[in-house]
Amino acid sequence: MFNFLISKLTLLQLLFLIIGIVFKNTGPLSLRVWYDRDGNNLPIEERTVYVFKAKGIRRMTVYDPVPPALEALSGSNIEIIVGVPNLQLQSLQTAAGARTWVRDNIQNYMPGVRFRYIAVGNEVDPNNPDTSEYVGLVLPAMKNVHDAIVAAGLQNQIKVSTATYLAVTSGSPPSQGSFKENAKEFMEPIIRFLAQNNLPLLANIYPYLRHLGTPQGDPRYSQLTERDVVLKDPVDDRLYKNLFEALLDTLYSAVERSGGRNIEIVVSESGWPSSGDLDASPQNAETHLRNLMKQDRTKGTPKRPGKPVETYLFAMLRENLHGGSETERHLDLYLAKKEKERKLGIKTPIKNPIFNSFFLL
Fold it and tell me: Taking residues 241-263, what's their average pLDDT?
């Protein structure tokens, strides 16, 4: 009987059975995820998107505009962030190059694909030798892509931005957040451009990385499980019970100091690894995911109350060709191919061989 059920249910379907268990008592949920594709062990695009749609994924991020993924997304009604990888920024330094990119990667897939944001460049940082060569390319590319979007009459549907990260900021408590001195020349013109055009800033925010840098800190603060106030910011007596809010408000302060008081920050990546380093475990990943989803539905942060934080989970699939650190290879919600599934929200083992075979790490 169980063999029959396993043959009828794909691993992706089983993943969402677990997600349903996790969130069945938490109210309406619009999951937002990264559809990562850096692997040769992944389900085909059509099947992946079909299950995403069937299980309520409303928004996702695609790192770059790969035709099979965009074709599979056509008609799904899933809104997407599509990225321009750093290696492609050079091709967008002219208006003609940007128009061609928008035509080939955006307009050619509309109206079937619902584009929400274009992320021009990812985590470019003048202090990072791996990305510093792209510093002078990001803003011109953003401007050219934005102009191409406007010329196509799509500016009310698609917003152009870039994805940054917390390494370009400094300052504590959150009200003292600012861009680092050697990053200001890069970030401040970007912030002014976003503010002038009413565009959001995308930001990758990982409490785990900050926790890793301060292992003596309270893990409950990083995991978003602390119920007591951990940090009190003297500005307006703002109270912080979790690190996610504190990090996000630190970036908001930096953005405001650079002229971006009206800018909304979209958390384009966040997650917690299940293996690879200190406090990286399936249990901690489960806890962080659960609480991050609750955070997503709350009323903003102490600095920006009244609006839920639009957050995208990194990532849905485990990519066997993904580079970077060991923890980066364990940030997935779904372990591809025949690997076992992360135990999302299951307090005790389910007495069902399907779950026990595939999901328990």
Answer: 95
